[in-house]
Amino acid sequence: MKKSYDVIVVGSGVVGSSIAYHLSEDKSKEILTIDKDFPLSGTSGSTQAWVWVHNKTPAWYGELNMYSAELYPFLERKIGDVEYKRTGGIAPFFSEADREKALKLAEKQAEVGIKVEVLSRDEVLEKEPALSRNIAGATYSKIDGNVNPFRLIELFVRAARKNGAQFLFYNPVTNITKENGMFKVTTQDGDYFSNQLVMAGGPWSKSLGKLLGIDVPIKQVRGQVIVTEPLSPFLSHTIGGMRQADNGEVLVGYSKEEVGYDRRSTLDIIQDTARMAIDFVPALEKVNVVRCFSGIRAMPEDGFPILGEIPGIENAYIAAMHSGITLSPLVGTVMTELLSDGETSIDLERFSLKRFDTIQSIG
Amino acid sequence: MDKSTIVCRCEEINIDEIESAINLGAHTFNDIKRLTRCGMGPCQAKCCMNLVRQIISDKTGHPLSEIKPPRMRMPLSVTRMGALAGTRASSVASVFGESAEEGETVHEEKL
C-alpha cells in the first residue's frame, strides 16, 4: 500500500467519511482515511440520526444546522439513497407556560431564516394523531427530518472509494509527528505520511489531540435508545425524542449521561425512556421492545462544533462536534474548501479551537 | 447452500449480503450487523449467530473460535414497553426544554 498522501483523515465516522468523500470529489488529491475500528462501530452507528435544526440555539448555531440540512437532497443525488426524509420536526411541550418560550424561540430563529411554528394542541394532533392528548403544544418546522445513518456512512465510504480515496480500518493511530514538513502518522500497520492532516475523532478527539500536543475540550456523553418491533407507519414526523424508521421500527430516547466510554444500557435510563415513549405516544404501551442500544456522543465543552485549522500547527485541521449527522454534508463541504483553497464560504472563525484559550485564561 | 440462502430470518438477509459486507472490509459480526441489519430483528441473532460466524471464518480464514458473537443487548427477549416503563415520571430531558433553557454562552458573549 502507498505510504504517502496529500491528506490523511483520522476517523471514518459520519464527519471523517464526509470530509474524505467531499475532498475526493474533484479527484485532485490522494486521500487516506484511517480508523481504529470499522465505520459505524462508534457514535455514527448508534444514533437516531435526526437531521434536526429548528430548536438548536443560539440562532447562529441553528442557522449552521439549517444550511447542512438543506444540502441533504443534493448529497443524496450524488452518493445514492441514504433514506433521507424531510419529515418536519415536532418538539412537544406539556405545559401551557412553555408557549411563551416557544414563541420567543420562533422569533429568534426567524431572524436567521428558520421558520418555526408554535402549534396548539389541536394543531399538533392534527399533524400527528398518535401523540398524547396531554401535550399543550409544540414547536414545529418543515426543515427537520431524519436519515438512515448506516446507509449514509456506507455510501460516503463507497463514493469516496469510487473517487480513488483509500481507507484503512481496524488500525489505531498510535503517534503523530511532523518530519520535513510532512505529518508522519504511526499506526498499528506502519507509518503513513501526508501534507495535510484532519482529525475527525468524534468523542475520541481528546486522546487524538494529545498525540499532536493539543487539548481538545470535548466530553463524552452517553445516550440510550430503545428500538421497538416493526409497526405499521403511524408517525409521519420526526418527534423531539422519537422517530419511526422506514422499516417500521420506532426509536425512542433522549438521555444524556457523562460516564466516559461506557456503552452499556442501564435499566434506570431504559425505564425512564420507556416512560417518555408512553407519555408522548400512549399507544406505545402495548408494543414490544426488541432491543436497546447506547452510543457515546462527542460534546465540545461549550456545545458548539470545533472546526477548522489547528492553531500553531501548520496544515493540521480538526472537525469535532455534536450533531455530526445533521452537520456532516456542510462540514464535508467547508472542510474541503478550507483544505483546497484555504478559505471557506462560511466564516469558521467562531468555531475555531482558539476560542477555548480565551475561556481557559478567564478560569 | 447457495448465495441466496437466507441466514437471518428476521431481517431476511442472505449469504450474498453478508459476503458483500465482508468484502467492504467488515470482519466482525457487529460490523456486519450494522451494514446489513443481520441480527437486528426480533430474535436478536439467536438464529443467525453461528451461521454468520461460520461465514466470517470461511471468508477471512480466521478460526471460528476467534469470531466473537454480536453484542447482546437488553432486553434479552422481546418485552412490552408498558412492562419496561417505570412508574416514576420520566427524567429524560426533553428536546423542547433544552432549547428553551439554553441562553447565550460564555463563548457567545466574548464575540
Report on this structure.
- With 363 residues, chain A is of the alpha/beta class.
- Chain A is 31% helix and 26% strand.
- In chain A, strands 1, 2, 8, 9, 10, 11, 17 and 18 form an eight-stranded mixed beta sheet that branches.
- The longest helix of chain A is centred in the first third of the chain and has 21 residues.
- Chain B is mainly alpha-helical and 111 residues long.
- Chain B has a single domain, classed as BFD-like [2Fe-2S]-binding domain (Arc Repressor Mutant, subunit A), CATH 1.10.10.1100.
- In chain B, strands 1-2 form a two-stranded antiparallel ribbon.
- In chain B, α1 packs across α3.
- Chain B starts with 5 loop residues before the first strand and ends with a helix.
- The relative contact order of chain B is 0.12.
- The C terminus of chain B is likely disordered.
- Chains A and B meet through β4, α3, α5, α7 and β16 of A and α2, β3, α4, α5 and α6 of B.
- Chain A: One of its GO terms (molecular function) is oxidoreductase activity.
State the distance separating the first and last CA atoms of chain A. Answer: 47 Å
Question: What structural class do the secondary elements of chain A suggest?
Answer: alpha/beta
Q: Provide the low-confidence segments of chain B as ranges.
A: 103-111
Largest sheet of chain B: 2 strands, antiparallel
Distance separating the two termini of chain B: 65 Å
* Coarse morphology of chain B: elongated
Q: Find the CATH superfamily of the domain at 4-46 and 150-217 and 302-355 in chain A.
A: FAD/NAD(P)-binding domain
Give the strand content of chain B. Answer: 5-15%
What's the pLDDT, averaged over the residues of chain A?
95
Percent strand of chain A equals 25-35%
**Which fold name is given in CATH as the topology of the domain at 4-46 and 150-217 and 302-355 in chain A?**
FAD/NAD(P)-binding domain
Instruction: Please tell me the total number of domains of chain B.
Output: 1
User: What coarse outline of chain A follows from CA principal-axis ratios?
Assistant: globular
Please summarize the sheet with the most strands of chain A: 8 strands, mixed
Helix count from the secondary structure assignment of chain A:
9
| Class by alpha and beta content of chain B | mainly alpha
From the alpha-carbon coordinates, what is the Rg of chain A to the nearest angstrom? 21 Å
Helix-strand pattern of chain A: EHEEHEHEHEEHEEEEHEEEEHEEEHH
